[in-house]
């Protein structure tokens, strides 16, 4: 089972290294990791996705909470959260396939952000399943390059995760 964890940390150099080291030492695999500054430049927010049972989730939270630069750790429940990923996909696009690709882009509410004679770069956002489905449909045209952000998540309603 995949679990999403929001971690508020001090926005200092070396914090990401310490967190990655913790995962490595404990043999926990990071499925995805997204990091960025918060509304307060002194803090950064990490969204970490890990796979495992409830015991693994509890261990990860306990271990993260012990780190010096970690301010707050919260497990995000899927039913109480909004989760999104961003992907940029460079796909082969000749004159014959371009219109079919554009139809798929429209159906998925994606965006074409660059076009050249032999390829297109497409941006898609959504939950992991939507991005996976979109990528799978584009495979038939030949994916030249793919970059995904990993999951970014936020709790619904009044509950907030701040420093």
Question: What's the helix and strand layout?
Answer:
Elements: E1 2-10, H1 15-25, E2 30-37, E3 43-51, H2 54-66, E4 70-76, E5 81-92, H3 98-107, E6 111-115, E7 119-126, H4 128-138, E8 143-148, E9 152-155
Antiparallel strand pairs: 1-3, 1-4, 2-3, 5-7, 5-8, 5-9, 6-7
Description:
- This protein is α+β, with helices and mostly antiparallel strands.
- It folds into 2 domains: 2-76, ACT domain (Alpha-Beta Plaits, 2-Layer Sandwich); 82-152, ACT-like. Chain A, domain 2 (Alpha-Beta Plaits).
- Helix content is 28%, strand content 42%.
- It contains 4 helices and 9 strands.
- Strands 5, 6, 7, 8 and 9 form a 5-stranded antiparallel sheet that branches.
- A hairpin with a 5-residue loop joins strand 2 and strand 3 (43-51).
- The protein is elongated and about 55 Å long.
- The relative contact order is 0.21.
Q: What can be said about this structure in brief?
A:
Helix content is 28%, strand content 42%.
**What is the count of β-strands?**
9
Q: How many domains, in number, for the residues? A: 2
Oligomer: single chain
Low-pLDDT stretches are none
Largest β-sheet summary = 5 strands, antiparallel
Net shape: elongated
Distance between the termini: 28 Å
Helical amount = 25-40%
Relevant CATH superfamily of the largest domain: ACT domain
CATH domain fold name of the largest domain:
Alpha-Beta Plaits
Strand content bin: 35-45%
Task: Let me know the average pLDDT.
Answer: 94
| CATH C-level of the largest domain | Alpha Beta
Q: How many whole angstroms does the radius of gyration measure?
A: 18 Å
Structural class: alpha+beta
């Amino acid at each position: 089972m995949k679990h999403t964890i929001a971690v508020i940390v001090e926005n200092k150099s070396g914090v990401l290294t310490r967190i990655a080291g913790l995962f490595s030492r404990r043999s926990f695999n990071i499925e995805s990791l997204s990091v960025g500054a918060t509304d307060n430049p002194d803090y950064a927010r990490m969204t970490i996705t890990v796979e495992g049972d409830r015991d693994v989730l509890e261990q990860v939270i306990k271990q993260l909470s012990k780190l010096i630069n970690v301010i707050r750790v919260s497990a995000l429940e899927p039913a109480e959260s909004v989760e999104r990923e961003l992907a940029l996909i460079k796909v082969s696009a000749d004159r014959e396939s371009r219109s079919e690709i554009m139809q798929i882009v429209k159906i998925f509410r994606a965006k074409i952000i660059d076009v050249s004679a032999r390829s297109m770069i497409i941006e898609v956002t959504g939950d992991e399943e939507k991005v996976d489905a979109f990528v799978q449909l584009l495979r038939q045209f030949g994916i030249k390059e793919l970059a995904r952000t990993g999951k970014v998540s936020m709790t619904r309603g009044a509950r907030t995760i701040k420093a």
